[in-house]
Design brief:
The chain is an all-alpha fold. The chain has 16 helices and no strands.
Length: 361
């Protein structure tokens, strides 16, 4: 039976864990709900830390990995490991089992869209767990099968699968709802960012070369977004300010984020600045994916126009490049967090094929 003192200790641990996680991520408030959800999912596993039911804690590890990504999941695992050991919730063997499994989940289970890859990674995790538990059974398969460690393998598999399902559901449903609500609030303000009344707009306009490039990215992104049934104004504003950091310093992405925060640009535009070249983040909105595609395609057409070594026409080259670009972004999971539907993906590709691949242009 779990006593009142154990319950109190678990509650205190959960509160401290949530505070540290929120301080660490330092991002938009929509991520705070994910942190609190993960902490709540971890409580049962923490309470059963010295029992065969300890793997239930991996519900939260998988959830964090899917929703908030690899880096934050690793931080979460390390902090939770330190806490549960310092408060005596787990023994030495259980602690090592938790740490190794938690880190493997953090490193391998980030995206559940590729089912084949997911089960391949799950097999790696379960194989490592089996080896750890066999060592604890003095490498005796008979002892392993007849005793409780076998239960831990089954619980680990179930917890990882359920945690990933919960994370995928959260990302698809809750994140979309929060993002849509935020977009509704800022929609009327986006137009105000694209005229001379806004100081940052005037600063960018003063730089002729950067302004021309930014305006082109914004206009193309707006047209692409509208063609796919997305928010054209957000895509235009994101495209317009995606390289604002070039006004200062060499690290234009990080500088651009700092400038965007200084001028209080919406989180949706800040993410577009961070993710347009995938250096700091992946797009978290369909409009962010639009700007990412537009930036890559404009850079490609400018390269082909400046190069005289190719034999094919630029429109034909751009059709091939567009096809390869869309396939590569899908294969590398660059679109994993942007909630772009299959229909929107197809419509975007068709738009860019027509825009850049028109032989009459």
């Amino acid at each position: 039976m779990i006593g009142a003192i154990g319950l109190l200790k678990a509650g205190i641990l959960g509160i401290l864990l949530a505070i540290l996680m929120i301080l660490y991520i330092g991002r938009s408030k929509k991520d705070y709900l994910a942190v609190i959800s993960a902490v709540l999912l971890s409580i049962p596993g923490i309470m059963w830390g010295n029992t065969d039911f300890m793997p239930v804690v991996f519900l939260s590890s998988a959830f964090i990995a899917v929703v908030l990504g690899k880096e934050i999941s690793i931080f979460y695992t390390l902090i939770l490991y330190i806490y549960v050991n310092s408060l005596g919730f787990m023994g030495k063997k259980e602690g090592i089992f938790f740490l190794v499994t938690g880190l493997l989940i953090s490193l391998l289970i980030e995206n559940v869209k590729n089912k084949r890859l997911f089960f391949y990674f799950l097999l790696i995790i379960l194989s490592a767990d089996t080896i750890l538990l066999l060592i604890s059974c003095n490498l005796s398969i008979t002892v392993f099968v007849k005793t409780h460690p076998a239960v831990m393998i089954v619980l680990t598999a179930g917890s990882v699968i359920l945690g990933c399902m919960a994370g995928d559901y959260y990302r698809k449903k809750v994140t979309i709802q929060v993002t849509n609500s935020a977009n509704d609030v800022i929609e009327t303000n986006l137009d105000n960012l694209l005229n001379d009344n806004f100081e940052l707009y005037r600063l960018l306009k003063a730089s002729d070369k950067l302004y021309h490039h930014s305006e082109m990215i914004g206009v193309i992104s707006e047209s692409a977004a509208l063609a796919a049934g997305l928010n054209g104004t957000l895509a235009k504003a994101g495209g317009f300010y995606h390289e604002i950091g070039r006004l200062k310093g060499k690290d234009y992405v990080s500088t651009g984020v700092a400038i965007a925060k200084e001028y209080q640009l919406p989180e949706s535009i800040i993410n577009i600045i961070q993710s347009h070249n995938l250096k700091l983040d992946k797009p978290t909105s369909p409009e962010g994916a639009v700007v990412m595609f537009t930036v890559s395609l404009v850079a490609a057409v400018e390269y082909f126009q400046s190069s005289k070594s190719h034999e094919e026409s630029i429109p034909r080259l751009m059709k091939k490049f567009t096809e390869n670009l869309f396939a590569m972004r899908l294969e590398k999971d660059s679109l994993a967090n942007c909630n772009l539907t299959v229909n929107q993906y197809i419509r975007l590709k068709e738009f860019y094929m027509d825009y850049f691949g028109n032989e009459e242009e």
